[in-house]
Amino acid sequence: MPTAIEEIVLPKLSNDEIARYSRHLILPEVGMEGQQKLKAAKVLCVGTGGLGAPLAMYLAAAGVGTIGLVDFDTVDASNLQRQIIHSTATVGKLKVDSAEIMLKGLNPFLNVVKHNTMLTSANALEILKDYDVIADGTDNFQTRYLVNDACVLLNKPNAYGSIFRFEGQASVFGTKEGPCYRCLYPEPPPPGLVPSCAEGGVLGILPGFVGVIQATETIKLILGIGEPLIGRLLLVDALGMGFRTLKLRKNSECPVCGPNPTVTELIDYDQFCGIAPPSKVGPLEVARDKAVGDHPVVDGIPQITVEELKRKLDAKEDIFVLDVREPHEYQIANLGAPLVPVGEVERRVGELAAQKNREIVVHCRSGARSQKAALVLKQAGFTNVSNLAGGILAWADKIDPSMPKY
Amino acid sequence: MKIHIPTPLRTYTGGLETVSISGATVDGVFQQLTVTYPELKPHLFTPEGKLRSFVNVYLNDDDIRYLEGKQDTAVTDTDELTIIPSIAGGINL
């Protein structure tokens, strides 16, 4: 099958490189020419988090000549449960800088290009154009559609991977003969229908699994060997240790990669996904779920600060605090409030009938789910419902530092 | 026949990954599925009753959109349906 690397003069390998890649060189499927193709290759890793971490590391180990990294975030301790490219020593650093340290430590022959920015319609074509393969390791639908469309427009293969809790998907989109992401999912889910990371959680090993699959596909594309996942969707179920492959077809009416495309330039993906534009800094899902509020009222629900709640509790005001997290979170830390998980609030509204006219303060971990629950209560006729802005995390931050944060 | 329920929707099937539902066609099986697990309905179908576009349904390994009969394709007890929603986890998942 054709390789992703165009016909160019392949770079020479030094004696040191030959010694380093010996186990590749003695494989007939790789050999000197294959290793030279790897050295000539330029791969862009969009995201240096759960998926990007193992992906970039294995590409560096394999001898890919140039790795571009796109990430605007900084390393947080909670990343280290799965983002093995970073370390305790780099907490607080920009992810692209942290990743570069690990990648260069592993392979000093590597050329790392850092793009410390959010990928947007304004910069995507410019950033992607100089790479041979794009590996998409992002965490939100807007960027997935953006990367997909940019790859189709630029004719770059897209080694796609995505995960949720214990399951993953992988495929190769963006090739001329194969389907693109929009052939599989013409439209994104409305915001809030698919839980975000803070609500979903993930088994740390899962992105490791899927990220290495993406690296494998990238290397296969560069070398022109094996059967890349073009036209196939690999489903990984880590708990059952099951793998399934489903057939993907190119949608003849695909607005991006079909014979009559209607999308011929990058669009406003926030609008496409029905989401308010993200803030300039910070993880995108915070803005998407509207968790953080400096606003006193959001969608008709008053936002109350943890200081205000403490004051009310100390003054023994007649308030009812409702915790809408999951039982396993309650065990980590709680405010002693009755627990009704957010997904059950609508169904169990009857249990709270006695509180209908009392002041109710709803809380969760960070303020996103409690906002949703507060809206449900309001619609059910509860007259005095507020949302605890910042959730139990803000309480642990400002009121009770002995409380664990998770 | 067996229907594979994806993780995000398992809260509506009491945590079950696989459920057994009978029906003569794909559509018939889905109708019965949403009768047995009514909370699934809004996540799979629009109010007009159309399958939501970010949900894909596979009959064995084939996407039903590309089967001749689509939702009216006949099914047997040994066939399996899989529901695949879009997921986006990556950097922060």
Could you explain the architecture of this structure?
Chain A folds into two domains: about 15-285, NAD(P)-binding Rossmann-like Domain (Rossmann fold); about 290-400, Oxidized Rhodanese, domain 1. Chain A is elongated, with a radius of gyration of 24 Å. Chain A has helices spanning about 15-20, 20-25, 30-40, 50-60, 95-105, 125-130, 140-155, 180-185, 195-200, 205-225, 270, 285-290, 305-315, 325-330, 370-380, 390-400; strands at about 40-45, 65-70, 110-115, 135, 160-165, 165-175, 230-235, 240-245, 295-300, 300-305, 320-325, 360-365, 385-390. In chain A, helix 4 runs parallel beside helix 5 and helix 4 (about 50-60) packs parallel to helix 10 (about 205-225). Chain A has 16 helices and 13 strands. With about 400 residues, chain A is an alpha/beta fold. By secondary structure, chain B is an alpha+beta fold. Chain B has a single domain, classed as Ubiquitin-like (UB roll) (Roll), CATH 3.10.20. Helices cover about 15% and strands about 20% of the residues of chain B. Chain B contains two helices and five strands. Chain B has a five-stranded mixed beta sheet, with no helix packed on it. In chain B, strand 3 and strand 4 form a beta hairpin. The termini of chain B are far apart. The model of chain B has no long low-confidence stretch (mean pLDDT about 85). Classes of the chains: A alpha/beta (about 400), B alpha+beta (about 90). The interface of A and B includes residues 48, 161 and 163 of A.
Q: Which blocks of ≥5 consecutive residues of chain A have pLDDT under 50? A: 278-293
Quaternary status: heterodimer
Helix content of chain A: 25-40%
Find the CATH superfamily of chain B. Answer: Beta-grasp domain
> Count the helices of chain A. How many?
16
Taking the alpha carbons of the first and last residues of chain A, their distance comes to: 47 Å
Strand order of the largest sheet of chain B: 2-1-5-3-4
Q: Report the CATH C-level class of the largest domain in chain A.
A: Alpha Beta
**Mean pLDDT over the residues of chain B:** 84
Number of strands of chain A: 13
The string of secondary-structure elements of chain B, in order, is EEHHEEE
